From TrEMBL:
Name of this chain's protein: Late blight resistance protein R1B-23 isoform X1
Residue span of region Disordered: 118-143
Biased composition (Low complexity): 131-143
Keywords: ATP-binding, Cytoplasm, Hypersensitive response, Leucine-rich repeat, Nucleotide-binding, Plant defense, Repeat
InterPro entries membership: Apaf_helical, Disease_R_plants, LRR_dom_sf, NB-ARC, P-loop_NTPase, WH-like_DNA-bd_sf, WHD_DRP
Gene Ontology molecular functions: ATP binding
Ranges where the Disease resistance protein winged helix domain occurs: 405-473
Biological classification of the source: Eukaryota, Viridiplantae, Streptophyta, Embryophyta, Tracheophyta
Cited Gene3D superfamilies: 1.20.5.4130, Helical domain of apoptotic protease-activating factors (1.10.8.430), P-loop containing nucleotide triphosphate hydrolases (3.40.50.300), Ribonuclease Inhibitor (3.80.10.10), Winged helix-like DNA-binding domain superfamily/Winged helix DNA-binding domain (1.10.10.10)
Family: Belongs to the disease resistance NB-LRR family.
Organism: Salvia divinorum (Maria pastora)
Primary location class: cytoplasm
Domain NB-ARC: 171-321
Keyword ATP-binding set for record: yes
Length: 837
């Protein structure tokens, strides 16, 4: 049960945090405290072994889980109430506290004895090691993430491609219809991204509708695809979209349409122009009546046949080139048969078994657990519930919390990890920080096919979605286990209120001393303005994540007390000014050892005192807009030996050049953003080219000046991502494959003076993608020539994305030159031509 495990881990984390807090007394040597800690550790092990006992579920243990969850929550309430008394009054009532502590310690000890009896009767095994270990964290770095593919739908894909590119020329609506989990969206994505579709249509737009839709949000999605403004009324947005599409051959995908009302409310006839140029609108829907109403020419999804089902299962259940062990094949085929050709069910069960022991009795238990059903969504939910039942205990609360996000929401991994940590779901590890453990938890959910990755970054999963049937499973299970509270009338979902608050006034902060995650939105206050955080914020003894959103040109001023908030892990404020901490002697100096993320600090003085206070910071964003002064101690930046991700923004004045040149970058740096510092290309190479771990370099607006960049061999040896944006002086880039030997992705933006793309870049063996947007015509065409040369040399792995914009004369000249040289024939080229009008 997710609630029980989450409550135990949260209690364990609180006991550890209080034990290490220098400002609050706590009788940790008391036998009752020691007994409580032992009971919690035992019960966590019990929950893990219970969930890993080959799927054997015991009704007595399930009932016990509810009692364990309640006992752990009561214990946590008692301990936090003690902390509240200390913070508010500077003292506590020891007799009352010790009496309450005795009760909860006895209660947890009773739960321990009951769990011991259940464990002895059922013959449970000890839990296997999981992702909090260093080995699993290392595996997260080395194991490649699988990619989604279509199996058994080749004929349907070909049919859809033919409908999209064939006659008639009039605008055509093509519904894709099938029950949940059939692969409608996957089919649409495969067509949407197919090279022949990218070449055939001028623009391709995508919007997700969902059950609870908003016309304004749908229009905003479509306009965003064309990089058009999403402001204004619905009427203004309609007109803007219509005018933007007029005269273009477009493909629009409307994903997950539930009712005809959504179609009627969009008023498609007056939204998508029909100029007889072969434009298409694809609609995915479960509702056969919707599909029938929209068009007679529809694509119907069917169940997979036996061979395709088996192939899809093996793809997801076994490592590449291994296949099914002979001793498991009969049982495995029984499992596949019970999925009844439903792709989502096969993929999820396969993903679960990929992470499970290859023991016959375990697989037989899985086969017996899959229930037959004559329903549609019910059939899939029965199979999906199996994947939850067999999830390791530490993943269950993390998985169920995903149900709190709206249907079809694009979920950012960074936000999810913050909430998991704040909720106390992530177990402390002696070898990894909590963020690394949480990242591995997310990766495990992905490897089990329980989330759909929408976008990757250098760390792995960047953004993802949850299939609506998987989300429904989360909601049903969370409600059953009393893990989330779901309000039927509004669909609102909340968790335990002590943990996450998204709106808070300064007057009420003192009443929320047990908060772990504080998110304050100040976008509606008058601007520009200075917002002073109240000194009472330091009373939030357990606050781990502080996020503040302010309007443009506004700032947050933090009090001295923020340096006493030792549990803070992340400070993310649009612009924050941190007052330098008061000097303290070595014995009384408070060190924020848990602070790993500090974003958007303005004019931050990197004094020795500051560097000592935040020694473990890993992500740092700084901006400077004051008068240049050595007061900011730029050389001390090198003292952050754990720093991995650094962003530096200057106001663009040339006065910062010498300051930037004096910066000392730590060798641990992996990602570097530079903006407005104005160093020249040679200085840049000397400053950062030798950093041994630098993988991603972003050179943003006016970060580098000078017309010629001639890189030096032996520099940038580990650089994988390079982004050059609005470095307007760059004319000549003399680079070849020896200068960036392991580069994978190259992004060039707004380089209007660049004469030629360096063809030697195309010879880098690891290069996967070049993305050029709004660069000069000559450099864009030379990049297309480089791609053509690489294709001739049988380099099929390199892709080129081009966005080119200009006036009518420039566009015509560009098209003619591209046409004459035959540069658009490669399927590895994605070319987008945008008018500047």
């Amino acid at each position: 049960m997710a609630a029980a495990f989450a409550a135990l881990v949260s209690l364990q984390n609180n006991l550890r945090l209080i034990h290490n807090h220098p400002n609050h007394t706590f009788p940790f040597e008391d036998e009752q405290i020691l007994s409580l800690r032992r009971s919690v550790c035992f019960l966590i092990d019990f929950m893990e072994s219970y969930d890993n006992s080959h799927g054997v579920r015991r009704e007595t243990a399930e009932a016990l889980e509810i009692r364990i969850a309640r006992a752990a929550q009561v214990a946590e309430d008692v301990i936090e109430a003690h902390m509240v008394d200390q913070i508010r009054c500077g003292k506590t009532r020891p007799s009352r506290f010790l009496l309450d502590l005795q009760k909860v310690a006895l209660g947890m000890d009773y739960m321990k004895r009951k769990a011991s009896n259940v464990k002895a009767r059922s013959g449970m095994l000890d839990p296997p090691p999981h992702s909090s270990s260093s080995s699993s964290a290392a595996a997260a770095q080395s194991t490649p993430l699988p990619t989604s593919s279509m199996v058994g739908f080749d004929d349907i894909l070909l049919k859809l491609l033919d409908l999209l590119t064939g006659v008639p020329l009039s605008r055509r609506v093509i519904p894709i219809q099938g029950m949940g989990g059939m692969g409608k969206t996957t089919l649409a994505i495969n067509a949407f991204q197919h090279p022949c579709i990218v070449q055939h249509f001028d623009v391709c737009l995508w919007a997700t509708i969902s059950q609870e839709y908003s016309i304004q949000k749908i229009l905003a999605q479509l306009l965003s695809c064309m990089r058009r403004s999403t402001s204004g009324t619905v009427g203004e947005m309609r007109e803007r979209l219509y005018k933007s599409l007029y005269g273009l051959r477009y493909l629009i995908v409307l994903d997950d349409m539930w009712t005809l009302e959504a179609w009627d409310d969009m008023n498609v006839k007056f939204l998508f122009p029909d100029t007889n140029d072969g434009s298409r609108v694809v609609v995915t829907t479960r509702n056969a009546n919707v599909a029938k109403h929209l068009s007679d020419c529809r694509v119907a999804m069917s169940f997979l046949d036996e061979d395709s089902s088996w192939y899809l299962f093996c793809q997801n259940a076994f490592a590449k080139q291994q296949g099914c062990p002979p001793e498991l094949e009969e049982t495995a085929k029984k499992i596949v048969a019970r999925c009844k050709g439903l792709p989502l069910a096969i993929v999820v069960v396969g993903g679960h078994l990929r992470k499970s022991p290859t023991i016959l009795v375990y697989w037989e238990n899985v086969a017996q657990s899959i229930l037959y059903s004559t329903g549609n969504d019910e059939q899939c939910l029965n199979v999906l519930s199996l994947s939850y039942r067999y999830l390791p205990a530490h993943l269950k609360p993390c998985f169920l919390l995903l149900g709190a996000y709206p249907e079809d929401a694009k979920i950012y991994a960074h936000d999810v990890l913050k909430i998991w940590i704040a909720e106390g779901f992530i177990q402390h590890s002696n070898t990894c920080i909590l963020e690394e453990v949480a990242t591995q938890y997310l990766r495990d959910l992905f490897m089990r096919n329980l989330i759909l990755v929408d976008r990757y970054d250098y760390k792995g999963v960047y953004r993802f979605k949850v299939h609506d049937l998987v989300r429904e499973l989360c909601l049903q299970t969370a409600k059953k286990e009393e893990f989330l509270y779901v309000f039927e009338t509004s669909g609102a979902i909340i968790t335990r209120e002590r943990r996450v608050v998204t709106s808070l006034t300064s007057e009420s902060i003192l009443q929320q001393v047990n908060l772990r995650y504080l998110n304050v939105d100040l976008v509606y206050i008058p601007r520009p303005v200075l917002y002073y955080l109240p000194s009472s914020i330091s009373f939030l003894w357990n606050l781990q994540i502080l996020t503040i959103i302010v309007p443009d040109q506004s700032k947050v001023i933090a009090p001295y007390g923020i340096w006493e908030m030792l549990q803070l892990r992340q400070i993310e404020v649009d612009t924050i000014c941190l007052i330098e901490p008061l000097p303290a002697d070595q014995a009384n100096q408070l060190v924020m050892r848990n602070l790993y993320t500090l974003f958007k600090v303005e004019n931050f003085r990197l004094s020795e005192e500051v560097c000592k206070r935040i020694p473990n910071v890993r992500e740092l964003q700084l901006s400077y807009c004051d008068e240049v002064s050595w007061y900011y101690c730029p050389r001390n930046l090198g003292c952050f030996h754990q720093l991995q991700n650094l962003a530096l923004k200057f106001d663009g004045n040339s006065k910062w050049r010498e300051f930037a040149k004096s910066l000392a970058f730590p060798s641990s740096l992996r990602v570097l953003h530079l903006n407005g510092c104005g160093v020249d290309w040679e200085e840049l190479t000397m400053m950062v080219g030798s950093l041994p771990h630098l993988e991603k370099l972003l050179l943003l607006r006016n970060s580098v000046i000078g017309s010629v960049w001639t890189p030096v061999e032996g520099k940038f040896c580990h650089l994988k991502f390079l982004i050059i944006y609005a470095c307007h002086d760059l004319v000549c880039w003399n680079a070849d494959n020896s200068h960036f030997p392991v580069l994978r992705h190259l992004y060039l933006r707004n380089l209007s003076k660049l004469i030629e793309f360096p063809s030697g870049i195309g010879e880098i063996a690891t290069l996967e993608h070049i993305d050029m947007r709004f660069c000069s015509a000559s450099s864009t065409i030379s990049a297309m020539r480089t791609l053509a040369e690489q294709v001739e040399l049988a380099n099929e792995s390199l892709r080129l994305t081009v966005y080119f914009r200009g006036d009518e004369e420039t566009m015509e000249s560009f098209k003619n030159e591209v046409r004459e040289e035959g540069l658009t024939s490669s399927t590895n080229l994605s070319l987008h031509l945008l008018s500047s009008k």
